[in-house]
Design goal:
This protein is of the alpha/beta class. It has 3 domains: 93 residues, SH3 type barrels; 167 residues, Rossmann fold, CATH 3.40.50.300; 67 residues, Probable gtpase engc, domain 3 (Ribonucleotide Reductase Protein R1, domain 1), CATH 1.10.40. It has 13 helices and 13 strands. The strands form 3 sheets. Strands 10-9-8-11-13-12 form a 6-stranded mixed β-sheet, sandwiched between helices. Strand 1 and strand 2 form a beta hairpin. The N and C termini lie far apart (52 Å). The structure holds guanosine-5'-diphosphate, magnesium ion and zinc ion. Guanosine-5'-diphosphate binds next to helix 9.
Length: 372
């Protein structure tokens, strides 16, 4: 206890005001032990192929990851938004995350051959909010929004929705109404390149010291929006940058942007496939309307596909629930079941291996005993 207090003093004498601006909080402070006093604290604001950009509030630097971290699981590797401890220009510790936006690694085909799912990939860590960005052009898709909502809820973060390119749609208000039917109370913002109204509303909702991540398809307008919120073109936008962007993400591009107003935004390269990571298949926060009706189904484990006394099917036939939305719900639910089954199985396999090892040891011990 005493050492923590000493430690706090040491840090507060240092650069804690700078760190607070980056979102430093007691949650992270409490993780520090006495031995950390000499280390620098920093937040990851950019991830490059072989290095990371970190900020200490007043200064930024390029660092690499120490060997012990390189060898850990993908999910434990520092991600944008992580708080880390530095020694020289090495990251030696990644502090425990308050939360993380996680999805399955893309390129599942590669893993299919091995009959296993991709690893969890951390998109961003330590977030106050996540904005799902969707353009009112070809990008507009309610089913994809539902998948994103599920992804974010499953990470324990409250999602919000931003509809961009309102200027490209004849009747953006109609889209807004449609999205509100799947948003179920989640805030929805409408923005356009043509006017400032929506952007200003969004801007005023971003307090200093808070971190928000933007996710959505490539081309949805995330970087354009960040530039407008920033008041200057700092992120590359458009299809040209997307083609160049693959693996060539230049160092001029930041992943975590600190707005002049103090709020922080995490830009993300477009997600081609919304691959859900694990989540509770029996409670889908993105579908409160369906789950509410489902509570009156005759069977507790009703799948809402054929069961007699299924209130969900009745609601669909009455037109109270949308059929497409029910299908989307069932698809997501089945997917999450599949993922958690796989994870349980692989955990069971690990356990079996462990016991095999233990049994082997016991055998050897017994052999020694009896052959004495
Ligand atoms: N008409 C219109 N075009 C937009 C708007 N926002 C973005 N764009 C365009 O959409 C393209 C992709 O935008 P970008 O910000 O790079 O998308 P990102 O991949 O999500 O970062 C660019 O050519 C932008 O100029 C908008 O509100 N209206
Ligand atoms: Mg972009
Ligand atoms: Zn049912």
């Amino acid at each position: 206890m005493k050492s923590t207090q000493n430690n706090m003093q040491t840090i507060s004498q240092g650069n804690t005001t700078h760190l607070n601006r980056l979102g430093w909080s007691p949650f992270f402070q409490d993780q520090l032990g006495n031995e950390d006093i000499a280390s620098g604290i920093a937040r990851v604001i950019g991830v490059r192929r072989n290095s990371l950009v970190v900020s200490q509030g007043a200064s930024e630097m390029l660092v690499t990851v120490s060997g012990s971290i390189t060898n850990t699981r993908e999910a434990a590797y520092p991600a944008v938004g992580d708080w880390v401890l530095l020694q020289d220009s090495f990251i030696i510790t990644v502090l425990a995350r308050q939360n993380a936006l996680v999805r399955k690694e893309s390129g599942r085909k590669k893993h299919k051959e091995n009959d296993r799912l991709g690893q969890d990939q951390v998109i961003a860590a330590n977030l106050d909010r996540v904005f799902i960005v969707c353009g009112l052009d070809r990008d507009f898709n309610l089913r994809r929004i539902e998948r994103y909502l599920t992804l974010v809820y499953n990470c324990g973060i409250s999602p919000e929705i931003i509809l961009t390119k309102a200027d490209l749609h004849q009747n953006p208000g109609e889209c807004l109404d449609e999205v509100e039917t799947v948003a179920c109370g989640v805030p929805v913002y409408l923005v356009s390149a043509r006017d400032d109204e929506g952007v200003l509303a969004l801007k005023s909702s971003l307090p200093a010291g808070e971190t928000a991540a933007l996710i959505g398809s490539s081309g949805a307008g995330k970087s354009t929006l960040i530039n407008r919120l920033y008041g200057k073109d700092i992120q590359t936008t458009g299809s040209v940058s997307e083609n160049l962007g693959k693996g060539k993400h230049t160092t001029t591009n930041r992943d975590l942007i600190i707005l002049p107003t103090g709020g922080m935004l995490i830009d993300n390269p477009g997600i081609r496939e919304v691959a859900l990571a694990a989540g509770d298949a029996n409670s889908l926060s993105a579908f409160p309307d369906i789950e509410k009706v489902a509570r009156s189904c005759r069977y507790l484990d009703c799948t809402h596909t054929h069961e007699p006394g299924c209130q969900v099917l009745i609601a669909v036939s009455n037109g109270e629930l949308n059929d497409e939305r029910l299908k989307s719900y069932q698809k997501i639910r089945d997917e999450l079941r599949y993922i958690s089954d796989r994870e349980v199985k692989s955990a069971a396999r690990v356990e079996r291996e462990r016991w095999k090892g233990v049994a082997q040891k016991i055998k050897t011990i017994n052999k020694k005993k009896y052959h004495r």
